[in-house]
Amino acid sequence: MSQFWRSLNERYGCELVFSTAHHKSDGQSERAIQSVELLLRGLCNAWSDDWATHLPLVELLLGNRVNASMNAAPNDLLFGLQLRDPFTALQPITTLGDFTLPDWRLALRQQALDHLALVQEYMRQRYNSLHAPPPQLAVGDWVWLELHDGYSLPPGLLPSDRRLGVQRVGPYTIKRVVSNLAYELALPPESRLHPVISIQHLEPYVPSGNPITGATITAILRERETRHRGLQYLVRFEHAGRDKWVPCLENSS
Known about the structure:
Mean pLDDT: 78
Shape: elongated
Order of helices and strands: HHHHHEEEEEEEE
Largest sheet: 5 strands, antiparallel
Low-confidence stretches: 210-214
């Protein structure tokens, strides 16, 4: 951009934020251009060679459209009133009452700022609700290892079809807390994985417990040891319909 245009924008208090056409970097401008293209598509002739003649009407229509974030139209905030277009020419004219035009315009702008602050607070709360802080784990806790984003086991330990196969393995115990975002697991040697795993790939293991709340164990029938789940016991619960394999957890009663 030439020095002339830089000086002109600086004179009028316009802050220039440059963007590139590829890769796309200005979503707000790109969305506005899409709206202009959509209107021109319905106004232009079959050859689309008269688009320039429709630009004043498109500018007027977009300026009269209410912005959801500000709950007001740009023309309302800029001029203090809605400009007449072919679609609103027959509607009654809004009277200002005891307000002068400058006072009315300032009141509209203040309402838009208040509404914009309310929307920003809503978006902040919604973002925080969807991005909860990571769980805090400690040494000795049991966790699942999620098999995604680059984590996988050797082919001999998992089914050939990764989509239909298991999506997590474990549970494994935490040997060391590296930070609140990384933990060292007690992985079996055949997994061939680095033991320090990000919290993004871990899920706290919650024992399923007894099939019936408050039920007691009546008998331990058998035991087995598998590569993925370690030592397990076939347990019979009181008043349960069937026996169940449960993992052997350290320091469990």
